[in-house]
Amino acid sequence: MTGSAIAMFVIGGVIIWGGLIASIVYARKVAKSKTQ
């Protein structure tokens, strides 16, 4: 793999995992605000 291909792979992974984690954190915040 070339450097640019590796860079795109890493950036794509960060976007996917970052979005997944952000959605989980957001869902937990919404659930907490509803229970209070």
Give a written overview of the molecule.
The protein is mostly helical and 36 residues long. It has 1 helix and no strands. The protein has one helix spanning 3-35. The longest helix is centred in the middle third of the chain and has 33 residues, at 3-35. It comes from Salinibacillus xinjiangensis. Keywords: Membrane, Transmembrane, Transmembrane helix.
Mean pLDDT: 93
Protein structure class: mainly alpha
What is the beta-strand fraction?
Answer: under 5%
- Alpha carbon gyration radius: 16 Å
Count of helical segments?
Answer: 1
Question: How would a textbook summarize the main sheet?
Answer: none
Q: Catalogue the unreliable spans.
A: none
The string of secondary-structure elements, in order, is: H
Number of extended strands = 0
Helix content: over 70%
The backbone outline, from C-alpha atoms, is: rod-shaped
Give the N-to-C terminal Cα separation: 51 Å
Keywords: Membrane, Transmembrane, Transmembrane helix
Protein name: MetS family NSS transporter small subunit
